[in-house]
């Protein structure tokens, strides 16, 4: 058994008390704690995460990585693997508030256009009555008064709280989308609710581009498509074999994007003296590629494990 150092504890504490963190923030905390830049010492960084996860697993928590589907940024967070709503949402939310939240994520997940959001108006009009569990409704149980009396202003207040806690987010257009905490924590739920996966990364395609062919359900995240196009010129849909519509993304845009991402990763909290060595290692594209792949495969493995344990219950 590994004994965690104060450094491990500081990283866990930061993720728990400040909620899921963007990669940049988490990396700079890592640098502050260890004096190392995770961009250059990927192996050490991964070892920390592995050691932390070993210990967290005893209490059914897990440090997870995923992408914010709305801006494509990588995020880290500690999630509770015991999947009942009360323990996930803590004691903070009441039963009708949780029902309201579930109604919203269901509406977002069911969106066939994969916009990943619903309007604020639609959110406020979610009916809590629909959230009474199937066993209860089959036994003709009455709608609990707490559900019936849940007012519009209570809904508005709950929306604000859920956004603040990163269970939901407000998109640039002012709509309501899934927060990063939901994206980290509800992976197996999204799978079990038949949200089609992105064909590139295999994560649920909540906010994604759709194949335009009628009857073809293939989805790809915009950031996954950009990454793909930075490596090759075209993309055929694996579902229907037709060329994927690229009108919105040009090849040069995709390459620019990929390079910007690498650059910002490289420069994150790097002391000047180390810059040269770093650039060299980043110039080696295979190394960079494999570290990306290992990150992706880690999160993929997590997701699969979660799904399996979800089924076995
Ligand atoms: Zn994807
Ligand atoms: Zn297709």
From TrEMBL:
Biased segments, Polar residues type: 286-301
Keyword Zinc: yes
Cellular component terms per the entry's GO annotation: nucleus; Smc5-Smc6 complex
Assigned keywords, A-Z: DNA damage, DNA recombination, DNA repair, Metal-binding, Nucleus, Transferase, Ubl conjugation pathway, Zinc, Zinc-finger
Skewed-composition ranges (Acidic residues): 255-265
Any Pfam family: zf-RING-like
Subunit relationships: Component of the Smc5-Smc6 complex.
Family to which the UniProt record says this protein belongs: Belongs to the NSE1 family.
Residue span(s) of domain Non-structural maintenance of chromosomes element 1 RING C4HC3-type: 198-240
Catalytic reactions on record: S-ubiquitinyl-[E2 ubiquitin-conjugating enzyme]-L-cysteine + [acceptor protein]-L-lysine = [E2 ubiquitin-conjugating enzyme]-L-cysteine + N(6)-ubiquitinyl-[acceptor protein]-L-lysine
NADP recorded as keyword: no
GO molecular function, one term: zinc ion binding
Gene Ontology BP term (one): double-strand break repair via homologous recombination
Coiled-coil regions listed: none
Main location: nucleus
Compartments where located: Nucleus
EC number: 2.3.2.27
Region (Disordered): 255-313
Protein name: Non-structural maintenance of chromosomes element 1 homolog
Organism of origin: Arabidopsis suecica (Swedish thale-cress)
């Amino acid at each position: 058994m590994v004994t965690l150092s104060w450094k491990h504890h500081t990283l866990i504490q930061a993720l728990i008390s400040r909620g899921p963190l963007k990669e940049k923030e988490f990396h700079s905390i890592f640098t502050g704690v260890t004096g190392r830049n995770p961009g250059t010492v990927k192996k050490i960084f991964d070892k920390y995460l592995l050691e932390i996860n070993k210990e967290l697993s005893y209490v059914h928590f897990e440090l997870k990585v995923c992408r914010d589907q709305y801006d494509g940024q990588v995020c880290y967070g500690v999630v509770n693997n015991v999947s009942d709503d009360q323990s996930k949402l803590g004691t903070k939310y009441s039963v009708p508030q949780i029902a309201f939240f579930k109604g919203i994520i269901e509406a977002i997940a069911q969106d066939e256009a994969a916009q990943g959001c619903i309007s604020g108006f639609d959110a406020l009009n979610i009916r809590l009555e629909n959230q009474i569990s199937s066993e209860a409704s089959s036994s003709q149980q009455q709608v609990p008064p707490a559900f019936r009396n849940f007012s519009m202003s209570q809904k508005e207040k709950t929306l604000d709280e859920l956004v603040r806690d990163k269970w939901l987010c407000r998109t640039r257009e002012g709509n309501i989308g899934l927060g990063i905490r939901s994206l980290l924590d509800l992976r197996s739920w999204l799978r079990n609710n038949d949200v089609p996966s992105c064909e590139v990364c295999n994560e649920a395609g909540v906010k994604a581009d759709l194949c335009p062919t009628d009857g073809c359900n293939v989805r790809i995240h915009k950031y996954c498509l950009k990454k793909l196009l930075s490596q090759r010129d075209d993309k055929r849909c694996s579902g229907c074999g037709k060329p994927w519509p690229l009108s919105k993304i040009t090849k040069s845009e995709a390459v620019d994007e990929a390079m910007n991402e690498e650059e910002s990763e490289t420069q994150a909290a790097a002391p000047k003296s180390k810059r040269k060595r770093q650039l060299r290692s980043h110039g080696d594209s295979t190394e960079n590629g494999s570290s990306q792949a290992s990150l992706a495969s880690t999160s993929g493995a997590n997701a699969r494990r979660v799904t399996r344990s979800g089924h076995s219950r």
